[in-house]
Design goal:
By secondary structure, the protein is an alpha+beta fold. It is 34% helix and 25% strand. It has a five-stranded antiparallel sheet, with no helix packed on it. Strands 2-3 form a two-stranded antiparallel sheet. The termini are far apart.
């Protein structure tokens, strides 16, 4: 009975370790138009670099909703990103074609490169003017942080 209990505990411990290490060492891909690589898991942490849609990264560590990564295209870029901005599915974007399904494209919220966007615009059925105008708006992190402080708003995680 003791052996069975010890074996069960060991199996559960190993399963927990395997789950915790599930993404470590794996190659993942950026699912957003651009992503900022942060120095820490704080939203307002210093930005160490940026990567573009489809960029491959190696997962070094997981911490809740954050993943510490290293760029495979630019190995000098390493830091933390939101786990939701990565996928294990390889993303290939070229004019008129993508490895993502129509639903994945819709979920990405226009998160593809200029070449693919131009191909979609040529179809003549889509109007991205309002989205392009919103994407052009840039608010520096310092200004956003001041807005949150002055309004006595929570700073999030």
């Amino acid at each position: 009975m003791k052996r069975l209990m010890l074996f069960t505990v060991l199996c559960l411990g190993m399963a927990g370790i395997l789950c915790a290490q599930s993404l470590t060492g794996r190659t993942m891909y950026v699912t957003t138009k651009t992503i900022e690589i942060k120095k820490s898991t704080a939203f307002f942490a210093d930005t160490l670099g940026t990567l573009s849609y489809g960029a491959p990264v190696s997962v070094l560590q997981e911490n809740g909703k954050w993943v510490r990564i290293k760029s495979l295209e630019a190995p000098e870029i390493s830091g933390w990103v939101a786990a939701a901005s990565l996928t294990t599915k390889r993303i290939i974007a070229s004019a008129g074609k993508t490895s993502a399904s129509a639903n994945e494209i819709a979920l990405a919220g226009k998160g593809f490169n200029q070449e693919v966007e131009n191909a979609y615009k040529q179809s003549g059925t889509l109007d991205y003017a309002a989205i392009d105008a919103m994407e052009a708006i840039q608010i520096p992190n310092g200004q956003l942080l001041n807005f949150l402080r002055e309004g006595h708003l929570a700073q999030g995680e």
